[in-house]
Structure prediction request, 128 residues.
Amino acid sequence: MGLLSLDPSQATCIDSSKGRPETPPADLPGRPWTSHQRKEQPVELNDVKWNEQAREKILLDADRALQEAVREASSSLADADKDEVYKFLFEQLKDQFVDFQPGPDLTRYAEAVANGDFGSNGSTGTES
Prediction:
């Protein structure tokens, strides 16, 4: 444990473990300075993750974006073929996500829109 010098103009701290004065880092103004060192394990990059609440919100937002794109496609591309609908969905979604990589879901919904499986309001009639 360090002892604060009585002369505030010197702003030094005596580290009792080293027995010599130390000056607080100048680049940390207004921050309390302590002389003890932490012995913590480094954080592994694999441990840096969104918490469960954030993950859930991210997925809900992504689902809503997909639903809105499918709703818009079903109302504006009623007579389009699967490839046109797929292209429309891709264009609607690609800029909303980092590194967007469409999978089989996009094909499935493009086929459903092209087959007229959605009503005029985008509903399949199976929602609760």
